[in-house]
Design brief:
This protein has 270 residues and is of the alpha/beta class. 46% of the residues lie in helices and 15% in strands. The longest helix has 19 residues. 36% of the residues are buried. Bound molecules: 3-methylmercaptopropionate-CoA (MMPA-CoA).
Amino acid sequence: MQPTFTPATGVLAQQSLLDISRHETLLHIRLNRPAKRNALSDTLIQQLHTVFIQLPDDIRAAVISGEGSHFCAGLDLSELVERDIHSGVLHSRMWHAAFDAIQFGRVPVVAALHGAVVGGGLELASACHIRVADATTYYGLPEGQRGIFVGGGGSARIPRLMGVARMTDLMMTGRVYDAQEGLAVGLSQYVVDAGQALDKAVALAGRIAQNAPMSNFAVMHALPRIADQSQSEGLFTESLMAAVAESTPEAQSRLRAFLEGRAGKVVKAG
Ligand code: 1HE
């Protein structure tokens, strides 16, 4: 059961291809182009970018979902015709800027997936921090069949989830993974029953929003960078990040709360 979300106001309400609502410190961004299966037009990419660089200060976690029968059909192929080399590079860089604003923004983002999560749709999902798929979800990278390549950060992000060999297979052979296969290879961290992805994503975002913002920031910003570093550099980065996080007043008060018996214990699931 989801809490009641109310329509966002201000600049968020002006993003015509997104349906944006909020509940307390959670923001829900729904891709809202169902007639085109939420295909990512330039305008839609720009609107996503705008949202993530203009997040209200009191938002602490976000959920991205898709309206209609699919999460996202990827790049709007109708806009790809006759693009020259220079504008092609700039177009890809525009996607990079928007998806970087999601991955390396201020708040954790949970993707609620269903139906097709293909091409640029998978690139978008892979820029989020947690992915919840429902049983109808399927993943594909049809760029090979379309005669193009990934351009929305997929070549950097997707192999970090599933490995280069599996991504090569999807792109070269047109193989499609179902929800369970996606879970097994690391494309999603959760699979839930059909129609339940949004509820689960909102519940997870609600828990994430309770964490100290600096801890969430460290997970979002330090973990992927440390994974890209050598062990020696990574350990040094970790020490710096750990010292920063520990020294915040919020960490101090949370540690005191545990030591004084005022904070929850770690409990087994189930
Ligand atoms: C689109 C797009 C789109 C649907 N661009 N218009 N992505 C793809 O190669 C996936 C292409 N789409 C599909 O394979 C299917 O549409 C779906 C499996 C996603 C959904 O099937 P279905 O039967 O529910 O819908 P549909 O009837 O195919 O499509 C409904 C409408 O959406 C139809 O338009 P209409 O005017 O005839 O109603 C479709 O043309 C339109 N539509 N997908 C434009 N993608 C930065 S690089 C990223 C590179 C990529 O993302 S490559 C992968 C692109």
